[in-house]
Amino acid sequence: MEFQPHSISYKSQGVGGNTNPPLFHNGEIFVTSGYDHPGLMFSLSDDGNEIELKWQNETLDNHHGGVVMVDGNIYGANWQHNAKGKWVSVNWESGRTNWETEFVNKGSIITADNMLYLYEEKRGNVALAQPSTDGLKIVSSFTMEEGAGPHWAHPAIYNGKLFIRHGNVLMIYNISE
């Protein structure tokens, strides 16, 4: 297979790091990059050569913590001028914000077994939450106290274990029970 680049169908008008990978589902792509730029949903043509803007959402402008989709809704944290951020849920199909709420500060998010794992970037708060269109439903939480510096590394889950790195420390939590 040979990679054949296509012409650019869309170019962002903003500046910033664009550190988040896009989410792809059923011929649509969601992109977000923080810095007060809206999250954008694009529809791809059947041949994949053209894209069309489907909707934009001003609330979910994720900086670098990533976004996930569970049951037709996007979850992540927004940017709010790099000082603070809130956690957000947006409907994949309509682009409507389901909710925006505080959980200490913005951070990274992953999903496994139909649950959300949040890792807040300033103080290291970690939360297990149920996906919901009615608000952030935290099941349990704790604070990652080992390590130093910002809590920017994304958590990972493998074989019933939650891996969280903070600076030069890697903590492993058993989440299989």
UniProtKB/TrEMBL annotation:
It comes from Draconibacterium halophilum. This is PQQ-like beta-propeller repeat protein. PANTHER family: CELL SURFACE PROTEIN (PTHR34512), OUTER MEMBRANE PROTEIN ASSEMBLY FACTOR BAMB (PTHR34512:SF30). InterPro entries: WD40/YVTN_repeat-like_dom_sf. It comes from the Bacteria.
